[in-house]
Backbone:
């Protein structure tokens, strides 16, 4: 996988694949990694995903947090605060906030993780040609190498500077101007909007008396709109709406960077913030740009499930909704385990079709969300309902309605060979196709609290969460049956058992061995030692305490299916739909 | 500071001093640090202290947790479980559990931290002589070097292998057999008990069916007593009561290691655990020993406040109560900031007298606690009240009564020049002389939750927590007055202001500048974004919302004094009792 842009998607993918023990090469045309760079927003679901790779703590310890969102509207003397609401309005979010962290830090965390597995980015290298075999037999054989890529090493000082690589699969995580996408002849569907925005990273000076520089702030003024995104330390990012006639070159119709500089951007912002003072030293501006919002989705995400595109190569949208890096990382989070299963011989190669199926639908929803949100934000607020743009209530309403989507926790994959919702009723509140709902359990052996999501790390295995109800022996007999799927492909599964009972009285050694491969794998539906967290997961998930249920969670943390304990054979049907038993 | 034993006390002290920017040398007679070694228990208050140095996360991420304590008593067929209770019974503990981690890991965390400040342990080196000047003028002058120590470098291959060091202060953190203590001629007061115990670290095999290997377990059987302390991974430590006639050499009266080996220790344990099976592979035993409990306190902790002893050099007691490393670290936590203030010229040298005053009293209380607990644990449980040892209720009662003490959170320093309780009523629930009660606040600027303890890190500064009530201008005027103590020695203080109000409505920029040196220093008495943590700190601390209060927290996290806002001049009296204003 390659390229300069799309770094987030690329390092995320490379890290996931090398941790799975695969033979990966990752190339980049940049001679070095970014040292600092612009900040990227990280959404609640992305933090959960980072946690599943053991990387959330590293990100959170360096990041700025966005917990509240403040709204300002025009008043008689300039803007005035209308109110503050929680920035994240998704009630099931495990991390009920967004964070921001600069690219250099995020990329560094992934590069460190990859390095522990022995993988480093090769740079500076660019791809110069890519060919996919047309032999149907080779394309269907996971052991074949049907992709030929010619690479050019930019810094080779002498001799042959090109290299031919034969690959089983290639992922083009190469940004909005993706070379891979163009080479595959994949079109981008969508359009450019008329909205032009400036972005500038500043450190407010002591003169600044605007009270919401450390909250996400959405400001509508008679002089245009502005958004504040707090950054690490004392820095903030300003998104500043610009007048099209100033910012767009009338001849080309494209934004004209030369018409702006940091001082002019900040001057526009200063007008917007009146009567508040927004002041910053211009010599400390780390980064600024202006851009026009484009909203496009690639017409397909793969050619023959042998070469894929991911991240900005697949979708472009406005940065203000803070989706960019999140959508990118989640693309490759979705793809990495599927590639791993196919390469290990665990899954049929057709599993890879679900990547485009799941992620293109998501990208289309994202663009649709972005259109609504960007339009609302770029238009003037009317303080009545006379049709002069959205009312304040409409804006906050949209902000909150979309909370579930923009937080990432509402992502819902449609039924497919890996999403089987027939028995949804057996866990009525745990939606099949959505990510595993976070909830605190207590370990039976040592009473330590554990979030159930941390029992489903991104370790490439399917997790079988057994809520045995009164049917412990039924489940144990099923899992111990050598005719069953689980038995034949045991490496691909982890079994976690969730008992009813309390930490004061349980004896977890009474659970059959097939349900407790280690003492850490038996949990209790009980509160933590302080009584303030966890408990009642059966009710939270809608699982009957007598009937129980078996919940299958995919390696990426999404609920794949749920089986009632008197219908366990449905699991053989589910797994044989995409897994290979030998 | 030096020596082989007492490593915990030594690295803790060295780290605290070098982080304060002092010129420190630390010597050790061991050629290398311990690689693994025995496990040490870490109590709730010690975790808080580690957190104040930014080291708690590193310890907790590697440690085993003890959350529940299980009790077993003799029954008709061998031992049976009487019940489980929370291991930590101190309701104010921020970390309501104990953890264990092996010495190598703990020492490594401190060595890494010191190394970042440029300090490494010099080894192998031993002290061979120590002399303190008798010149009263030199002893009273913090800039003088009245201590002369001769060191011997054990690995110098040629030439002169001794070195003479002149020091302002010396800390003998050199373990139970302290060379410094003996050289100063300090006696140990106390006695040896008759109780002999064996200790062995094992990994229970699959045959083991005792259900509480991952809890702290106190077992009384007709064959003797035993205690389980879970360790990292799957390991556990067993403390096993031994028969004196087997374990003690009748001629010397001392324990005789040669009479035991791991197999014999485990055999004793196996008898104790019946009818349960306790089984382990003997070839994997990392560590074992047998010991007789001694309970002693040094008659003094210093000579002329120029040479100090700390940790095991000052107090020895039984390991089962898990106090050893905790008492040691907290000794030097108490001493380090005092040395720092004197060396910086912030405090009068007499401040150092409070070290022995505070820590020797603590050590005496510890021994008293240890005597009661060890006796209870070493005696047979009588299942009636006929005087055959403690009843089960007495044992659990003692376990829970002492929870507050053994957790470390109950430590209460008596009135002195640095503990001034006159105005206790102004914060009636925040006990002057105890550590700052943990409580969650919300940052006014960005609504992020912060535990108030994390606003009082071990950065050598006194913290002034201002609860302004309705008297904001009064406090601001006091702190801005150039005649006041705070003004003259501003580097020694950090000011944190705790407002009433909510994250939805507050404008923290309305607070006078002297009360907000940075946006992170203004907090709210409000709940976190989920509504589940924090809020009502005024009630928690017993501070009137109208009258307010100013709480002074020492650099080691203990409440030094509290001032009503109409009695702020009391702070000048307090600080001038030990601080120098120029």
Residues:
């Amino acid at each position: 996988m390659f390229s300069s842009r799309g770094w987030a998607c690329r390092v995320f993918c490379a890290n996931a694949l090398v941790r799975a023990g695969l033979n990966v090469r990752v190339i980049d045309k940049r001679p070095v990694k970014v040292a600092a760079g612009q900040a990227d927003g990280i959404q609640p679901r992305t933090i959960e995903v980072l946690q599943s790779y053991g990387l959330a703590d590293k990100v959170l310890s360096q990041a700025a947090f966005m917990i509240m969102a403040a709204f300002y509207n025009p008043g008689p003397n300039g803007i005035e605060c209308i109110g503050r609401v929680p920035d994240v309005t998704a009630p099931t979010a495990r991390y009920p906030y967004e964070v921001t962290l600069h690219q250099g830090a995020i990329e560094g965390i992934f590069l460190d993780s990859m390095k522990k597995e022995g993988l480093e980015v090769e740079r500076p290298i660019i791809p110069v040609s890519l060919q996919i075999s047309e032999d149907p037999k080779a394309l269907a054989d996971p052991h074949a190498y049907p992709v030929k890529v010619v690479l050019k090493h930019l810094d080779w000082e002498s001799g042959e500077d090109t290299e031919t690589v034969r690959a089983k699969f290639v992922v083009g995580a190469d940004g909005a101007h993706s070379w891979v996408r163009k080479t595959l002849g994949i079109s981008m569907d969508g359009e450019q909007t008329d909205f032009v925005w400036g972005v500038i990273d500043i450190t407010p000076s002591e003169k600044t008396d605007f009270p919401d520089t450390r909250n996400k702030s959405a400001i509508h003024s008679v002089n245009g709109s502005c958004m504040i995104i707090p950054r690490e330390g004392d820095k903030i990012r300003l998104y500043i709406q610009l007048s099209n006639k100033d910012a767009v070159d009338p001849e080309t119709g494209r934004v004209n960077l030369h018409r702006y500089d940091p001082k002019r951007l900040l001057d526009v912002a200063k007008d917007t913030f009146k009567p508040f003072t927004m002041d910053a030293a211009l010599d400390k501006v780390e980064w600024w740009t202006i851009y026009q919002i484009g909203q496009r989705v690639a017409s397909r995400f793969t050619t023959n499930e042998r070469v894929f595109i991911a991240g900005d190569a697949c979708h472009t949208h406005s940065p203000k909704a803070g989706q960019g890096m999140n959508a990118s990382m989640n693309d490759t989070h979705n793809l990495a385990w599927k590639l791993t299963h196919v390469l290990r011989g665990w899954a049929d190669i057709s599993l890879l079709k679900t990547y485009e199926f799941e992620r293109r639908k998501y990208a289309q929803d994202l663009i649709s969300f972005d259109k609504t949100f960007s339009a609302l934000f770029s238009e003037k607020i009317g303080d009545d309902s006379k049709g002069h743009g959205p009312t304040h209530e409409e804006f906050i309403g949209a902000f909150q309605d979309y909370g579930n989507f923009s937080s990432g926790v509402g992502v819902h994959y449609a039924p497919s060979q890996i999403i089987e919702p027939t028995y949804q009723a057996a866990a009525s509140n745990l939606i099949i196709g959505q990510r595993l709902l976070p909830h605190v359990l207590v370990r039976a052996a040592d009473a330590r609290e554990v979030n159930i999501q941390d029992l489903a790390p991104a370790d490439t295995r399917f997790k079988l969460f057994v809520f045995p109800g009164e049917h412990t022996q039924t489940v144990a007999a099923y899992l111990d049956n050598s005719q069953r799927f689980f038995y034949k492909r045991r490496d691909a599964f982890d079994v976690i058992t969730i008992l009813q009972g309390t930490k004061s009285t349980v004896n977890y050694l009474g659970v059959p061995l097939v349900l407790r491969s280690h003492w850490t794998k038996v949990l209790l539906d009980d509160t933590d030692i302080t009584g303030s967290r966890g408990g009642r997961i059966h009710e939270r998930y809608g699982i009957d305490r007598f009937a129980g249920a078996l919940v299958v969670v995919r390696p990426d943390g999404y609920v794949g299916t749920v089986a009632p304990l008197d219908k366990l054979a449905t699991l053989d049907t589910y797994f044989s739909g995409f897994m290979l038993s030998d």
Notes: The mean pLDDT of chain A is 91. Chain A has 16 helices and 24 strands.
